[in-house]
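Appendix C: a fully annotated inverse folding record. The material below is reproduced so that readers can follow the format used throughout the book. The structure is listed first as tokens, followed by the designed sequence.
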């Protein structure tokens, strides 16, 4: 049951205005304007709309507008933007759903991204743990535009506002930072992740990626359920645990990784084609490391 209460300043008590029954217990509730996001024990998230009375003959109403089409024990959920809601689950899942536009009367909503964090989550809040001086180029706001590349062109400021990220806490005390990145950066990090997972099994950094067949199967299961999301642990390991020679080996192992990195670099894209400059593998490593370092300035945990 979701209930709206109003404070009666004369009687100094809360008076019930309206309510909406839900099938399963509520685990969390967040309000944004007249919209209410409710996380459910079994039905993921619900989006409700509070409609105040317009006259003395009218009455307050709480209307159930949308519900997720999938079932998941969700511990908490909140708005990331006016139409994107993120939720965290008991089993360690982190997902986002998108409200349909006002012109669409569809009731059910589907996830637009999801990833498995591997530990029980407790809360999610919009904001960042740090406030960089400026917003990194490939970190985008949670706006309504579904085209990330077009969305980046619409951003008029490099200011790093709190609404560029979200922080997830777990019962074990771990904190995760969630940010939205451009499609170019996402594809590059995915390819880097694939190249890192193919790295030598005898290297000390390998346990961070997988350790034994059981962990490999667990990783495969987790990544098979991912959609439009990436865990930055693997790509960060490339910077923190590999030497320059080992980074060069990773870059040399993937022609696609080299192509994506060069396409990401503005200096190369704007370079005159008649110039004889030939980027080396070391130059490509610098491009990748620069991208990961800028991401870490926002995602420090």
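Designed amino acids, in order:
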């Amino acid at each position: 049951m979701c209930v709206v209460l109003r404070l009666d300043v004369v009687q100094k008590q809360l008076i019930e205005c309206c309510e909406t029954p839900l099938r399963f217990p509520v685990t969390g509730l967040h309000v944004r304007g007249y919209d209410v996001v409710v996380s459910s024990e079994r039905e993921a998230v619900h989006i409700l709309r509070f409609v105040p009375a317009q006259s003395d003959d009218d009455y307050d109403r709480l209307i159930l507008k949308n519900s997720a089409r999938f079932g998941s024990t969700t511990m908490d959920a909140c708005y990331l933007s006016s139409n994107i809601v993120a939720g965290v689950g008991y089993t360690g899942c982190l997902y986002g759903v998108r409200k349909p536009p006002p012109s669409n009367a569809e009731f059910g909503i589907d996830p637009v991204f999801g990833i498995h964090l591997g530990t029980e989550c407790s809360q999610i809040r919009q904001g960042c743990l740090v406030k960089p001086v400026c917003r990194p180029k490939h970190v985008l706001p949670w706006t309504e535009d579904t085209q990330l590349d077009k969305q980046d062109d619409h951003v008029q400021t490099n200011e790093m506002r709190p609404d560029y990220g979200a922080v997830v806490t777990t019962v074990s005390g771990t904190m995760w930072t969630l940010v939205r990145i451009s499609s170019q950066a996402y594809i590059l990090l995915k390819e880097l992740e694939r190249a890192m997972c193919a790295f030598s099994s005898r290297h000390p950094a390998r346990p961070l990626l997988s350790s034994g067949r059981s962990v490999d199967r667990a990783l495969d299961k987790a990544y098979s359920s991912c959609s439009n999301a990436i865990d930055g642990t693997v790509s960060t390991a490339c910077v923190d645990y590999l030497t320059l020679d080992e980074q060069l080996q990773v870059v040399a192992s993937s022609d696609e990784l080299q192509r994506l990195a060069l396409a990401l670099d503005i200096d190369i894209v704007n370079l005159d084609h008649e110039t004889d400059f030939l980027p080396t593998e070391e130059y490509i490593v610098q491009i990748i490391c620069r991208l990961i370092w800028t991401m870490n300035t926002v995602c420090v945990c």
